[in-house]
Design brief:
By secondary structure, the chain is an alpha+beta fold. About 30% of the residues lie in helices and about 35% in strands.
Length: about 130
């Protein structure tokens, strides 16, 4: 059993290194939309350190600028449609408000994290500065 635990730990470290090495920003949330993981690029683009992001609602970390919020209350929480499996978001161009109050244009995509047939355990959001 100890050998299995070691292999799982090594695999987890490897996956963490892979995701941390990505050039795109990555935020992973649980099924309630609470931030569980961010990579260094996400820290840079949002201006919020990972330690402050963990456990926060998604919208507190990746804040859409007021001018980018959909009109009429539709899509009040950007991540909700993804978390209920209603849709994925692909290449949405939006302005975000960084932790210091400045704005940053990003292109983002989001999809549900499925652990089984129609069982969503969270979502992953990938974003970058537009080309």
């Amino acid at each position: 059993q100890h050998e299995l635990e070691c292999r799982l730990w090594e695999r987890e470290r490897w996956m963490e290194a892979v995701l941390s090495s990505m050039g795109d920003a990555v935020i992973a949330v649980d099924a309630l939309g609470t931030v569980q993981w961010v990579n260094p690029r996400a820290e840079e683009l949002t201006g919020m350190p990972a330690a402050e992001s963990y456990g926060q609602p998604f919208e507190s970390v990746l804040r859409l600028a007021e001018t980018e919020r959909p009109a009429g209350g539709e899509d009040e929480r950007l991540i909700d449609q993804v978390l209920i499996g209603q849709k994925s978001i692909v290449n949405l161009v939006a302005a975000i408000e960084r932790a210091d109050g400045t704005r940053q244009n990003v292109e983002l995509s989001a999809s549900a994290i499925e652990v089984g047939q129609n069982m969503i355990s969270g979502a992953v959001v990938v974003f970058r500065r537009p080309a």
